[in-house]
Amino acid sequence: MESTRQAKISRLLQKELSEIFRQQTAKTHGTLVSVSAVRVSPDLSIARVYLSIFPPQKSQEILESITASTKTIRYELAQKVRFQLRKTPDLSFYLDDSLDYVEHIDELLKQ
Hints:
- Helix 1 crosses helix 3.
- This protein has 111 residues and is α+β, with helices and mostly antiparallel strands.
- A 3-stranded mixed beta sheet has the order 1-2-3.
- The protein has a single domain, classed as 2-Layer Sandwich (GMP Synthetase, Chain A, domain 3).
- Helices cover 52% and strands 22% of the residues.
């Protein structure tokens, strides 16, 4: 069960991270990275960020480059939330495959 503080910080991080990724992907035409969910640990030290990447063929490659630049992304995030949070949580990125799962279920139901 997520506390109210965790939920507020999750929403704040999701909003700011999506803005960072929007600015980053504006430079690379044809790719879209959106933050579908952020889950913060109870001690607020770790944030698990779930990303939806379009086109899905490039998703693993883009996720690897995002993971490689985690420190830079965390620094940019810290600059944006420095007045709301005392310490910026460590970020770990995961691929959100819930849309693929829903599509697979729809295909199964059509058969």
